[in-house]
Design goal:
Helix 5 packs across helix 8. The protein is globular. The chain folds into two domains: about 90 residues, Rna Polymerase Sigma Factor, Chain: A (Orthogonal Bundle); about 60 residues, Arc Repressor Mutant, subunit A. By secondary structure, it is mainly α.
Length: about 160
C-alpha cells in the first residue's frame, strides 16, 4: 500500500478508531496502543476500496481489543490501575456536566445498543454499515438506535 494513501487514511480515520476503542476499553493508553496496532495491520494487509476502509478498520480494532482483553483479564491488579487512570482521563476529557451525564447514560445501555450508538454517533458509520458490523438487518439497527435514543432521553431527564 502506498505510504501517502496510508497517511491519508490515518489522518481521516484515526480519531474515529480511537473513540471507538476508548468506548470499548476505557483506557487512553490501551486505546492508543490498539489504534496503532490497527493501522499497522492496515499497512501490512489492507487492499480494500476507500468505501470500506472505516468498517474494516473498526472490525480490526474490535478484534484487537478482544485479544487484548483476553490477555489481561487475569491481571486484576492491572484492572485496578486502569480504573484509577480511567477516572483521571474521564475527568480531563469530560469538561461539562451535561457531557458527563451523557457518557454515563450511554454506558448504562445494554451492549448491542451501546455499541450501535457509539458506532453511529462517535464513529460516524451509517446504519447500513452498523448492520453489517453487528450482523443484523438494517431495520433492526434503525429500531435499536431509536429505542436507545429514547432510553438515553429518559435517563438524562431523571
Amino acid at each position: 500500500m502506498d505510504n501517502d494513501i496510508l497517511e491519508q487514511i490515518y489522518h481521516r480515520y484515526a480519531g474515529q478508531v480511537y473513540l471507538y476503542l476508548f468506548s470499548l476499553c476505557h483506557s487512553h493508553a490501551l486505546a492508543e496502543d490498539l489504534m496503532q496496532e490497527t493501522f499497522l495491520k492496515a499497512l501490512c494487509s489492507m487492499e480494500l476500496s476507500q468505501d470500506a476502509v472505516l468498517p474494516w478498520l473498526l472490525r480490526v480494532a474490535k478484534n484487537l481489543y478482544i485479544d487484548a482483553w483476553r490477555k489481561q483479564r487475569h491481571h486484576t491488579e492491572a484492572k485496578k490501575e486502569q480504573k484509577s487512570s480511567e477516572e483521571e482521563l474521564l475527568n480531563c476529557l469530560i469538561h461539562k456536566e451535561q457531557n458527563r451525564r451523557l457518557y454515563q447514560a450511554i454506558q448504562a445501555l445494554k451492549e448491542p445498543e451501546r455499541e450501535a450508538v457509539v458506532l453511529y454517533y462517535f464513529a460516524g458509520l451509517s446504519q447500513a454499515d452498523i448492520a453489517r458490523q453487528l450482523g443484523m438487518s438494517h431495520g433492526n439497527v434503525r429500531v435499536m438506535l431509536h429505542r436507545a435514543k429514547q432510553r438515553l432521553r429518559n435517563l438524562l431527564q431523571d
